[in-house]
Amino acid sequence: MRTVDLIQRKRDGLELSREEIEFLINGFTNGDIPDYQMSAWAMAVFYRGMNARETADLTMAMARSGDQMDLSAIPGVKVDKHSTGGVGDTTTIVLGPLVAALGVPVAKMSGRGLGHTGGTIDKLEAIQGFTVERTREQFVRQVSDIGVAVISQSGNITPADKKLYALRDVTATVDSIPLIASSIMSKKIASGADRIVLDVKTGSGAFMKTLDESIHLAQAMVDIGEQVGRETVAVITNMDEPLGLAIGNALEIREAVDTLRGEGPADLEALCIQFAAYMTVLGGQAASFEEAKDRAEQAIRDGSAIAKLKQFIHAQGGNASIVDDPAHLPSAPYIVEVPSESDGYIKAMDAESLGITAMMLGAGRATKEDVIDMAVGVLLKKKVGDPVQAGEALLELHMNRDEKVFVQEMSDRARQAITVSQERAERTPLIQAVVTKQGVQRF
């Protein structure tokens, strides 16, 4: 089998067999196939695509390229949730304790943030003492004992995906549905999930900017799940404005605590209840979606969800007192309000721009080497559709620097990300579509 022949076959729009795809992935991972040939193959896929069977075979070849988590020792059906990335996306930190409180084990491997999207691991490390480094035995034992654990991704999980993604990033082949879908799903499968729930973001703050693009990606991932025996549900959610009010690590932890108390932003709570319901049904702990929603709402009301959060933080070495006293979280010394320049209504928010503003304050990384400031970020005071008066705060900047030029630059940037209109704007529905093996339901 020759690599050049497989490049040519895909260039000409022909199918590759499972054996041919495994030959490519194994050879590239082992260093037998050079970058320039894999780049040519990725570009051929970019233009010619892959069918559902090919994409599933690519996914499994990448999942098998390194370590695979064996979660069979954990009782029950393990349901994983993945987000394609957004701004203020605190759902994993809420969902882990909430779903565990409903009897579904949550064994989660998460990543760090890069650019304008935050990472769950970074956010959790805003809690003093919290550690994401666990042996596999400790990880499995913790989930078996308390129902939830979150660790950082192993260095040898899907090494083929890491190598291929780095190549795609510098060869303009990132925007390929089969390559994106197989990248995401290979990590979920290698992480040991029995069932998978996907949060596919769409809008200005998301990777996929349009609903049709997002549905296309969701369908590809659901198809992979079905092909490899992992039931998968994908929910398309709005990212035209940040989720919740907080953008920044400690700010988002505080917001997650509020949400588990039933005191969080309405959109974040609604989305978490929705995802908790899907995870509970897939985990076999509820007979219907409505029953699962009711149980999730009850777990927030009766305090079992917030109690599970305390247990989770304590189990991973963190200072669980932050749940009752947020003063134990990092806080920025300077808080600057950015006021509206006119009366009206919030018409639109550029979620990506607000995420970049938080990153520039120090809440995120422009490069992998950057050090995150856990205390800083953006706290919204308004959402799309809300009325506002001239001089009223649109948001707060939580800062560790008070130089006049820097404060002015950040304030101007944040203000420009929010559009105020004389006419009340309709809010985009939070959930825009659900994709399952039965098809697409749009809302």
Automatic annotation (TrEMBL):
Q: Kindly list the organism's lineage.
A: Bacteria, Bacillati, Bacillota, Bacilli, Bacillales
Give UniProt keywords alphabetically: Glycosyltransferase, Metal-binding, Potassium, Transferase
Write out the GO MF terms: 1,4-alpha-oligoglucan phosphorylase activity; deoxyuridine phosphorylase activity; metal ion binding; thymidine phosphorylase activity; uridine phosphorylase activity
The identity of this protein, by name, is Pyrimidine-nucleoside phosphorylase
What is catalysed by this protein? Answer: 2'-deoxyuridine + phosphate = 2-deoxy-alpha-D-ribose 1-phosphate + uracil; uridine + phosphate = alpha-D-ribose 1-phosphate + uracil; thymidine + phosphate = 2-deoxy-alpha-D-ribose 1-phosphate + thymine
A Gene Ontology term for the protein's cellular component: cytosol
Could you give the subunit structure recorded for this chain?
Answer: Homodimer.
How would you classify this enzyme at the top EC level? transferase
| Needed cofactors | K(+)
| Keyword Ribosomal protein annotated | no
Give residue ranges for domain Pyrimidine nucleoside phosphorylase C-terminal: 345-421
Q: Which family does it belong to?
A: Belongs to the thymidine/pyrimidine-nucleoside phosphorylase family.
